[in-house]
Amino acid sequence: MPQTSFSIDTLHQKVARIFLNAGLSPQQAQPVARVITAGERDGCKSHGVYRVDGCLRTLRAGKVQPLAQPALADDGGGVIRVDADGGFSPAAFELGAPVLVERAKTLGVAALVINNCTHFSALWPEIEVLTDAGLAAMAMCPSYSSVAPSGGNAALLGTNPFAFGWPRPDNPPYVFDFATSVVARGEIELHRQAGKPLPEGWAVDVEGNPTTDPEAALAGAMLPFGAHKGSAISTMIELLAGAMIGDLTSDEALAYLGTTSILPHHGELILAFSPERFSAGRPGDPFARADALIDAIVGQGARLPSQRRFAARKASVRDGIVLSEAEVALLDRLETAGAQDG
Q1: Any catalytic annotation for residue 215?
Q2: Mean pLDDT, the chain, as a whole number?
């Protein structure tokens, strides 16, 4: 199948033009384009250009504000808040991240709360902003109800992603980012588009019966990873990044949207930690000790999380981002169509 290679900057500008043509302000369009391009750059197809259409559908449904102006609230303490003004989350994060970095380095630990946002992206792009600044970090958010709790038979929890990053001065950071469902919802949608059955244990249908049919899974519910353990972590995220920050839980988000065919609306919680502040006065260098542990893991032949992603990034920087003929055609159509088609 014919393919086309784009430089990272060229693809970013093309994706940004799609959103600008659809009516987003530059403040909204540029950050959204950055995270979508990062997904393609790192070989994460389910968070790459595939996401453009969902963003535009949500825009046409009137559930995201194209001209949103995020507002920062900072009283100088350890909790920084950004109201996303109903816009996409990347613009809100870019506004709050510099304050979060400064505050975590000053206090040792700080939190960024993003409220009233539409979230569509992976969490690792945000985590890597913080690890690049020398901070350890966690990020989490609800979604909308699409996952049955362990032992349940109907959607109640979200896919509820959780991410962690540890800075490594001389190596790519240690980063993991995963949904607390067996897989991200986008993976089931990709199986549906490809006409492929799901593996056993991914989902149940509307009657709570196990299914390998992507259509039945999307109408029913996904399952949490690790049974009761994943279910407990997912519930923790609902509590911390929903109830605690005064934003929507996944069940409330679904009620607000009325559908799972557009992007979820909720909040997000990001925590940042200064290893130097936490280890102050103790023997040893926390980064050297961490590297010794990570090297020991690799020494056993284990693969680090994000290792393949960093390899894909290196190849993209060197050779460009390769898109299929169908992906290029989709982007061309969306760039021409603006907000009227998707």
Answers
A1: no
A2: 95
